[in-house]
Amino acid sequence: MFEDLEFPVIAAPMAGGPTTPALVAAVTEAGGFGFLAAGYLTPQALAERIDETAALTPGVFGVNLFVPGPRSAADLSAHRERMRAEARRYGVEPGEPLWDDDAYLGKFEVVAERRMPVVSFTFGIPGEADIARLHENGSKVLVTVTSPREAELAAAAGADALVVQGFEAGAHRGLFADDPASPAGGETYGLLALLRLVSARIDLPLVATGGLVHGADIAAVLAAGADAAQLGTAFLQADEAGTSAPHRAALAEGTRATAFTRAFSGRPARGLVNRVLTELSADAPSAYPQLHHISRPVRAAAAKAGDPEALSLWAGQTYPLAGGGSAASIVERLRAEARTAAERLSRLRG
């Protein structure tokens, strides 16, 4: 699937702003592969971004969709009141705890009608009919997995490849189900360990993701059995990324720890530690996307004020090692670093 790539690096789909058509096109033009993030977009906005990306590159790119989950029955009133205190700092009110399916059906129609060559899914497995329709269109289906069991379920459902996500990854864990009793939403596997476990059970192409920001990381996951490496944090500071100014500044500073939180969205996600993550995480219920809608006005106001303390500063564990510049220069740096790492492996030949 990715064997024809000049360089087996994939720009991860980063919903909420960081992924732009310009970023996807730039990575594609540099010899890699890019995914547009459909999360939180309307079907019309997704169609427009597909068209914009296609106008920027003749290369192949993909689209990532969120699989809708069940409506949570948790009591959200206490969390909303805690978020209200944050909202007052910026002169706004928290949003309503609405559940929706992220316009899944409409966006699925967009990717199906456009016959997107590659469609990836996060938060679960699409329905049997959806997979069949994509396959009829000639599309390849990828499913994000965080455990060997999820990998087995995705393979049995007809996935063409798996995106294997280690706990080092920034932003949301791609868990099929969020266990409220676990701060991380379920069992945690380091990327290399998960790659080895999945490759021992599943005979499908594997895309490794989670904490990869250096070319040596790419070489390591390829050696461990991956067919390609998917990087998100490595591109957050790219010139073409839509990352907000306060998020960029916090990443560049490189001094904050990272931790899992449900405070912003209701699903476990790794981000830079700030005030909201510190003060609201402990009692944040498992209720996605209701908490996303509650915090959305607060996050928007904080971004406008240039204040990182109420933003979802998603980042992987190794974010201090990521740099900036054009996406093409980042890809070229990764390529050079990967070659150097490969040369070091030559010592194993004897």
Provide key terms for this protein.
12 helices; alpha/beta; eight-stranded parallel barrel; 350 residues; single chain
Task: Please characterize this protein's 3D structure.
With 350 residues, the chain is an alpha/beta fold. 39% of the residues lie in helices and 13% in strands. The protein is built from twelve helices and eleven strands. The protein has helices at 21-29, 43-56, 77-89, 104-113, 128-136, 148-157, 191-201, 215-223, 245-253, 275-280, 290-305, 327-345, and strands at 9-11, 33-37, 62-66, 118-122, 140-145, 161-165, 171-172, 206-209, 228-231, 258-261, 269-272. It has an eight-stranded parallel beta barrel, surrounded by seven helices. The protein has a three-stranded antiparallel β-sheet with strand order 7-11-10, with no helix packed on it. Strand 10 and strand 11 (269-272) form a beta hairpin. Helix 3 runs parallel beside helix 11 (290-305). The longest helix is centred in the C-terminal third of the chain and has 19 residues, at 327-345. The protein is globular, with a radius of gyration of 19 Å. The model has no long low-confidence stretch (mean pLDDT 97).
